[in-house]
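INPUT
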Amino acid sequence: GEDVEQSLFLSVREGDSSVINCTYTDSSSTYLYWYKQEPGAGLQLLTYIFSNMDMKQDQRLTVLLNKKDKHLSLRIADTQTGDSAIYFCAESAGYSSASKIIFGSGTRLSIRP
Amino acid sequence: KAGVTQTPRYLIKTRGQQVTLSCSPISGHRSVSWYQQTPGQGLQFLFEYFSETQRNKGNFPGRFSGRQFSNSRSEMNVSTLELGDSALYLCASSWAETANTGELFFGEGSRLTVL
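OUTPUT
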């Protein structure tokens, strides 16, 4: 079945760039998402990319999609302490149903001073 | 516009008890889905409701149930609680009617501790 995999932890120094990686298996994925979960809160959509794009930039965030390798990455430039959170990669084949959105296990990003 | 509201935020129960959690979606959203989040299993899909009907169900035992009311508010119930049911239960709402990005709007969750 469909699967989304991410590494569990990432530690970066404040001011450096963070790169969070994700691989997925469903070749029919239409949308790929990055959600952010801050401590004690629910998930919040950070950004998403259509499968026919290979890059999307939004201020400090850059999403890269390699459809051939089914690899998605999120780059956060100039990482700040407020970026400490769990980042979830998710993919969907575009159905209008939440059950069809497959989430990864989340990558916990911690920031070193 | 108010976000997704979940109540209660925290609760403690003992094994064998039952619990009911509530979720009020964003106004106009007709789809409500529930997730269980644990450190070991990540985010697991429980079920989705749309227009008062359960549309999809995840791989959870029958002790987990839910319903949706005509105003789109949803409740989930867990009966005969087990220690392993301790988790953060997240509710998410979405438009889920027309072709869209499928963005889910999450509440802050209800943290259940079973002793």
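end of record. Chain B touches chain A through 30 residues (CB under 8 Å).
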